[in-house]
Amino acid sequence: MKKFLKSFYYAAVGILSCIKDERNMRIHICAAFYVLLLMPFYELTKGEKAAVFLCIGSVMAAECFNTAIEAAIDRCSPEKHPLAKLAKDAAAGGVLILAVFAAVTGCTIFFDTAVLKKIFEQMISKPAEAVLFVISVIVCGAFIILPCLGKEKKQ
Predict the structure, then answer these.
(1) Domain residues of the chain, as ranges?
(2) How far is CA 134 from CA 114, 120, 139, in A?
(3) pTM of the entire structure?
(4) Between helices 23-38 and 46-76, what is the axis angle to 10°?
(5) Contact (Cβ atoms closer than 8 angstroms) between residue 122 and residue 68
(6) Is 33 within 8 Å of 144 (Cβ atoms)?
(7) Nearest residue to 35 (alpha-carbon basis) of 119, 98, 94, 117
């Protein structure tokens, strides 16, 4: 049982490392935050909700796989090699394909002018919520960008 529980710990460490080290993972997290924040405004079917959760989980898992592939290649082949480049580029391409199709799925499900108008009207009628939304955008921007600035200083 102890070994089983440790596997969850190691998985959590891996996820946290991706969040800390990978800007794109932080972008995916912020995008997921806003999708989940706005979901209650929509009358989604169970299937649509499942598609949203599957897209979010798939993109984040793909980013973890991409990070693992890049780390393994950097460890095994620290010098530049065309096959190492191909593997890293293909892994990143896989994440991009998945993220684009997740975004298309999200637009298909969420692009409803009536609901978007309702969200906008609520923001206008409740300034406190609008301010909180703006603050959340600033916090997400900082969450995405600030760790990158720290990396540039170290190098």
Answers:
(1) 2-112
(2) 22, 13, 9
(3) 0.88
(4) 170
(5) no
(6) no
(7) 119
| Distance between CA atoms of residues 85 and 36, nearest Å | 35
Instruction: Give me the CATH code for the 2-112 domain, please.
Output: 1.10.287.3610
Tens-digit pLDDT profile for residues 93-151: 999 999 999 999 999 999 999 999 999 998 889 999 999 999 999 999 999 999 988 66
Say if CB 61 and CB 11 are below 8 A apart.
no
The yes-or-no answer on residue 43 being catalytic is no
Contact 75, 87 (CB under 8 A): no
Cβ 19 vs Cβ 25: under 8 Å: yes
Helix axes 23-38, 127-154, angle to 10 degrees: 170
Which amino acid is it at 44?
L
Token readout for 130 is 């609008």
Q: Judging by beta carbons within 10 Å of its beta carbon (0-12, 13-18, 19+), is residue 96 exposed, middle or buried?
A: middle
Q: Given the residues 63, 79, 121, 129, select the one marked as catalytic.
A: 63
At 103, phi and psi to the nearest 5? Answer: -65, -40
3-class DSSP state of 22: coil
